[in-house]
Amino acid sequence: MNSIRRTLLASLLGVLTVLMTLAAVLSYRAGLQEAGEMFDARLVQSSRVLLNLVDEPLSDLTEYPGQPIVLRGWHGRAQGVGEALAFKDGHAYENKLAFQVWDAQGHLMLRSDSAPETKLAPLSPGYSDALIDGEQWRVFTLRSPPGRWFQSAERADIRQELAEDIAIGTLLPLLLALPLMALAIWATVIWAMRPLSRVSDEIGERDPERMSPLDTGNLPLETHGLVRAVNGLLHRLDAALARERQFIADAAHELRTPISALKVHACNAREAADASERRASQEHLDQSIARVERLVAQLLSLNRAERASQDPLQTHVDLGALVRVEIDEIKPLSLQKRQTIRLQLADTRVLGDELALGPLVRNLLENAIRYTPDGGTIMVSTSVEPDWARLEIEDSGPGIPEESRDRVFDRFHRIVGSDVEGSGLGLAIVRKIIDDHGGRITLGTSETLGGLAATVWLPRHTT
Fold first, then answer.
1. Beta bridge partners of residue 131, listed in sequence order
2. C-alpha neighbours within 13 Å on the C-beta side of residue 7
3. Interatomic CA distance for residues 77 and 67, integer angstroms
4. Interval 299-344: pLDDT, tens
5. Euclidean distance between the first and final Cα of the chain, in Å?
6. Residue 51: exposed, middle, or buried by beta-carbon count in 10 A (0-12, 13-18, 19+)?
7. Which of 59, 243, 371, 456 is in Cβ range 3.0-4.6 Å of 391 for a Cys bridge?
8. pTM
9. Contact of 109 with 149, CB cutoff 8 Å
10. Angstrom distance (rounded) from CA 446 to CA 455
11. DSSP string covering 242-257, please?
């Protein structure tokens, strides 16, 4: 599993290790460069000192002596560093230093016992690198006024050892401090992660029924986005649970009466004395079943509308085509009552969710059909305004008194004295869908048919 803590620790320690390695490499290169400059300067100095010391005495020799003069150095075995390599009569590194003196004719006149009898390097003034007995040497050649050649040399590994000592001296304290730095980084990461641990503990220990937002007062700025997202989720869950509780309460309340009626009619049909009573009870039973079926469908439709309102899908919907589809589905109901439906549909597009706008049109049409008497007329029209699409459904029914027009949008509200069966949820569903789409609805009196005129305005798509 991914862990922010392990990722931080691995990343920080990895970066620290890379930086320390880079520091060691740079220290080694810098040490090697500095050692080279220092030893090159010492070679020059050694050659000049040698020249000043022996050039004049060698001038007293009138001819080549035949065999070069060899200066003996310290010879022995020594291990360690620093003072362990230094003695009263010499130093263990003497065999890594050498010098030679050649006359103008190329005869070897003087050398150290660490130098070969052959030339350390070609007799040419300046620096050069030579491979002698498998070892790399750095040589400086200097010529005196009488024409003698003075060569001072040292093995290249001296410079590498010095550069390594500089790099190790730089890196070793860091390596020794690495466990302490790792411990400090680990403690810092643990301390910095405490707010996240506190938030997770608070969420884990919270009662499922407690949907109050988390407190962001003592949390670092980086966690505010996460806490806000969790608070938003808690708010949405609270709203969803409230809707579910309301839906269950409404369903239980509204289904109690029709289910009781179903039981009564079923009992009557079962205990009917003759076929006539049984037929009457069966008719009442069928009507009760239809009422329960419609009520359940309306409750489910209302629940879907409330769920869709949390994330409305904004697409282009052809309102006229949607009206035709809904009329085709509900047309058998109007044919049973021998009603006439007139259409005046314009090419109208709106922004909305087609799955939600379908129940809106369907509920308005069902209300118009149910409240319009047999042989009546229903007129459906759509039109376009600058920023709105307009849907109007008029009927020749009794209409709604002006003082009751606001209350009909309440859940389960039905007009007193109405002989039409219904659940009182149709217009509540309509209002919910319209509100979610940012539209509006008005109820009035149809000037043409004399019944109810329901007018809906929905935002129109503009290009």
1. 136
2. 5
3. 29
4. 666 566 555 555 555 677 888 888 888 888 778 788 888 999 999 9
5. 49
6. buried
7. 456
8. 0.43
9. no
10. 10
11. HHHHHHHHHHHHHHHH
- Give CA 253 to chain center in angstroms: 46
User: Token pair of 234, please?
Assistant: 């808690």
* Strand 86-87 with 90-91, pairing: antiparallel
Q: Are strands 149-155 and 135-143 parallel, antiparallel or unpaired?
A: antiparallel
- Helix axis angle for 224-270 and 275-308, nearest 10°, is 170
Tokens (6 digits) for 320: 């006229």
Q: Which domains does the chain have, with CATH numbers?
A: 4-166 (no CATH), 209-311 (1.10.287), 312-463 (3.30.565.10)
Q: Is the dihedral of CA 208, 210, 213, 218 positive or negative?
A: negative
Question: What is the distance between the alpha carbons of residues 436 and 298, in angstroms, rounded to a whole number?
Answer: 18
Q: Tens digit of pLDDT for each residue in 197-255?
A: 777 777 777 776 677 777 766 666 767 777 778 878 878 787 777 767 766 665 665 56
Residue type, 453: A
Number of CB atoms found within 10 A of residue 422's CB: 19
Q: Collapsing DSSP states into helix, strand and coil, what is residue 128?
A: strand
